[in-house]
Amino acid sequence: LPPGAFGLRLSALIGLLHGGYHLSMRTTAALLEDVCGLRISLGSVAASCARVSAVLAPIDATIQNHIQQQPQLWVDETGWKEGAQRGWLWVAVSPQASCYRIHASRGQGALWELLGEAYGGIVHSDRASVYHALPNRQRQLCWAHIIRNLQGLLDYAHAQSRWAGALLNWTRPLFDAY
Question: pLDDT digit string (tens) for 130-153?
């Protein structure tokens, strides 16, 4: 770490509490006071987190570069809120690494920022409309979502939904064969 008010272990703990456990800066400072007897300002929490982030930036870039080179990825996004600011937490997962990004949007710009605009591998995802930006040859729909949708169609009990039951009957042998 570059020089700062705190040593390596305290800086790492502050980074873990705020970044890893997603405690607010105020809660991080309160926990450090309650548990460690250490009174620090919110500005000191922010400065320490900035130092840790700066050190981790090259590692993060290496992880994202690795992710963008993988032949297949599992990608998802979920709502994310920091204070009053709403955003989206994106993740791209390979067998070796996971890359997270917080973005203000759930749109294509956020997807391309995560994957890289030249990504040519296969993306396993749900059917959120943002993934329509990928050509069909690059998409694999999540089987858990497909099975849930088929079950929903079957539960609807409409005359035209019987085919969903037939497809559901094939999912178990399919997974057994896999």
Answer: 999 999 999 999 888 889 988 999
